[in-house]
């Protein structure tokens, strides 16, 4: 009878097996499954990368809404003119080092102005073009009794302008991100600034050098 | 024999890994062929075709680099920026290195690691993004990129422990200053021009790229607007061209010429008896003629597999130039009030080569350590084989030794990954036009001054007091 070679399970072979298993695991690590999606509340704080996100935008909205509607400029205007102030939202310049969509919080602010019933809002210059085109189209194509006439737009009393700035300090795996958002309401006739809102956000983002 | 079955699986995995290492290079060579004839959509098709293999997983950053650049050259600026944004996110995420990948790379090769991009590549992403936004006429977004590149370079300087390695980019500073000035941020522009002047001082030494004459005349123009303090502040930079002001009603067109293809990474591989490894590897220079070296390697490897002599393979990356004929551009425009000759503002090839040279000691050390680990691993397996059977042990041990030598040779690969669609050099020329719409012609000349190629840029819109960019690409 032929002798069958004896296979001795030595420490080396166990080590080899471990390495082989590790190789297979690493090899297939890239083959991830479908992304997992979970619905969550829009006001839940979720920080992923440390960059500007929806939570920052909502913090700015809340601060600016509370501050702008709580200040005296509305009552002063009503006292002087007997009317609600009419506001137009101008440009909020992004002077930060991130691509930030400032419309997320200016739209929140517009909504709060309109819903408060204390401030009137007119369409911004970007929005007006489409509305005017529609009006022109109505004059050509709609019945006379339904077509809206030109020259009846409401002129704004105040324009909201602003900017978002940032300062980044980074070393190793630590970054400090500081954002400062400023919004101002300017009287369109006198250039007087009747309200200045400011919101500062500071974040410390740490990232480890090594992971699994 | 189960142990050898398991070993075989490992070997197959390592050989598959070795094969995948070469596929990225092969795809990038195909892309280069398309770029030489200006077929950017064709090159993009190749990138997309290989997204799920050559550019997958640990090479995904390369996918976004190549895609972003080709979309940029094809004039699809928004899509290019989307790709570059992904590249930036991946680059940030890869600050955290995987310990398991590092471990695996020690007995395979550096392709086990994610490609995180070289520092100069990650700087250039911001510059090409900024140019995309300028072409889209979104100056505020371009400024965001300019601020990001400033933040990135500052972090490089803070984190760097060696002041001789790449940590500043003169062209990034120069472009930043130009964009700041165009946006009316004169303070930032002034700082940018000064930083650029300082960085070009380093460039002169490191890359033989001198300070462009236009830099100082632009800086002096901004200084004259800021006041006497700024003009005095520029005195340290020495004499240069006088401040250059645009004539009334005129605008400036800056032509950026991306020329050539940056050098490709290749490898120099040494295969030698283990006993000779350390002294030989240290003695040999990476610049040894690659073909001679390859022939020697093949001979040694073949001989050792037959005789059973233990060998080790170590591979180091080197750069190989990709030749191109065009050496400079010559813009022509009948309506131009002024045309400045083209100035070299960035030598990406030289930066890449210096960047590798700065890291080569670390790379060599790791390659040698990896060779030792692989060698020790093989010896362990040989020992196990010899002990497994009194009758066949010696034979199995010899077979393992021969197989191990072949596998170690096959798996040892230098990391040749790089952003391959980058130009070799960037040239810049300034033209001043009266406001209006003008055609612009550009001749591309070889070293003998013969026109190799011409391009016409039709209907360039020039606004009074404004600066705009025109980007041209050649790779012939």
Give a verbal description of the structure.
The complex is a heterodimer of chains A (212) and B (476). By secondary structure, chain A is an alpha/beta fold. Chain A is built from five helices and six strands. Helices cover 36% and strands 27% of the residues of chain A. Residues 1-12 of chain A have low confidence and may be disordered. Helix content of chain B is 55%, strand content 19%. In chain B, the strands form three sheets. In chain B, strands 2, 6, 7, 8 and 11 form a five-stranded mixed beta sheet that branches. Chain B has a three-stranded antiparallel beta sheet with strand order 5-9-10, with no helix packed on it. A two-stranded antiparallel ribbon of chain B has the order 3-4. Chain B is elongated. Strand 6 (210-211) of chain A pairs parallel with strand 1 of chain B, so a sheet runs across the interface.
Query: What is the approximate shape of chain A?
Result: globular
Radius of gyration of chain B: 26 Å
Could you give the distance between the termini of chain B?
57 Å
Structure classification of chain B: alpha+beta
Order of helices and strands of chain A: HHHEHEHEEEE
Most strands sheet of chain A? 5 strands, mixed
DSSP, total strands of chain A: 6
What is the C-alpha radius of gyration of chain A, as a whole number of Å? 30 Å
Count of DSSP H/I helices of chain B: 15
């Amino acid at each position: 009878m032929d002798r069958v070679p004896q296979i001795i399970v030595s420490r080396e072979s166990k080590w080899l097996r471990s390495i082989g298993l590790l190789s297979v695991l690493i090899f297939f690590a890239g083959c991830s499954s479908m992304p997992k999606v979970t619905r969550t509340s829009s006001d839940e704080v979720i920080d992923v990368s440390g960059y500007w996100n929806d939570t920052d935008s909502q913090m700015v909205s809340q601060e600016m809404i509370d501050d702008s509607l709580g200040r005296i400029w509305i009552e002063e205007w009503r006292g002087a003119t007997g009317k609600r102030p009419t506001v137009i939202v101008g440009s909020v310049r992004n002077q930060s080092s991130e691509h930030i969509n400032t419309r997320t919080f200016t739209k929140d602010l517009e909504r709060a102005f309109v819903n408060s019933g204390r401030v009137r809002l007119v369409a911004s210059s970007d929005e007006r073009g489409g509305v005017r085109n529609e009006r022109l189209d109505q004059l050509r194509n709609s019945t006379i009794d339904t077509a809206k006439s030109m020259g009846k737009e409401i002129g704004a009393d105040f324009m909201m302008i602003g900017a978002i700035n940032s300062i980044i300090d980074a070393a190793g795996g630590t970054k400090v991100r500081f954002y400062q958002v400023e919004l101002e309401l300017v009287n369109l006739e006198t250039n007087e600034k009747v309200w200045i809102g400011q919101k500062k956000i500071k974040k410390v983002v740490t990232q480890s050098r090594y992971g699994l | 024999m189960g142990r050898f079955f398991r070993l075989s699986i490992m070997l197959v995995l390592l050989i598959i890994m070795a094969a995948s290492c070469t596929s990225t290079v092969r795809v990038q060579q195909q892309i280069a062929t398309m770029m030489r004839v200006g077929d950017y959509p064709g090159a993009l098709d190749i990138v997309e075709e290989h997204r799920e293999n050559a550019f997958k997983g640990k090479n995904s950053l390369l996918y976004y680099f190549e895609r972003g650049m080709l979309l940029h050259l094809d004039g699809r600026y928004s899509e290019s920026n989307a790709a570059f944004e992904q590249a930036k996110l991946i680059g940030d995420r890869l600050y955290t290195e995987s310990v398991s990948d590092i471990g695996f790379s020690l007995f395979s090769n550096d392709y086990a690691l994610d490609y995180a991009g070289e520092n100069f590549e990650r700087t250039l992403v911001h510059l090409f993004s900024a140019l995309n936004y300028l072409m889209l006429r979104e100056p505020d977004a371009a400024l965001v990129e300019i601020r990001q590149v400033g933040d990135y370079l500052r972090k490089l300087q803070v984190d760097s422990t060696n002041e001789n390695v790449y940590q500043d980019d003169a062209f990034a500073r120069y472009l930043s200053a130009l964009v700041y000035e165009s946006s009316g941020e004169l303070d930032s522009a002034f700082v940018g021009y000064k930083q650029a002047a300082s960085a070009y001082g380093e460039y002169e030494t490191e890359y033989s790229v001198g300070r462009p004459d236009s830099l100082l005349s632009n800086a002096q123009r901004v200084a004259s607007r800021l006041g006497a303090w700024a003009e005095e502040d520029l005195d340290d930079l020495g004499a240069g061209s006088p401040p250059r002001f645009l004539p009334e009603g005129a605008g400036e067109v800056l032509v950026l010429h991306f020329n050539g293809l940056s050098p490709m990474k290749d490898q120099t591989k040494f295969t030698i008896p283990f006993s000779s490894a350390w002294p030989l590897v240290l003695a040999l220079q990476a610049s040894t003629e690659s073909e001679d070296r390859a022939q020697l390697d093949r001979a040694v490897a073949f001989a050792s597999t037959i005789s059973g002599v233990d060998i080790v393979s170590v591979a180091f990356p080197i750069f190989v130039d990709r030749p191109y004929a065009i050496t400079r551009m010559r813009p022509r425009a009948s309506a131009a009030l002024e045309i400045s000759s083209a100035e070299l503002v960035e030598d990406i090839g030289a930066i890449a080569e210096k960047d590798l040279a700065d890291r080569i000691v670390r790379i060599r050390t790791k390659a040698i350590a990896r060779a030792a680990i692989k060698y020790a691993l093989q010896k362990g397996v040989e020992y196990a084989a010899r002990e497994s059977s009194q009758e066949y042990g010696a034979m199995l041990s010899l077979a393992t030794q021969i197989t191990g030598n072949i596998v170690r040779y096959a798996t040892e690969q230098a990391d040749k990954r790089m952003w391959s669609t980058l130009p070799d050099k960037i040239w810049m020329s300034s033209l001043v036009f009266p406001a209006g719409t003008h055609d612009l012609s550009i001749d591309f000349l070889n070293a003998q001054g013969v026109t190799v190629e011409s391009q016409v840029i039709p209907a360039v819109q020039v606004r009074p007091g404004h600066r705009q960019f025109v980007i041209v690409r050649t790779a012939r």
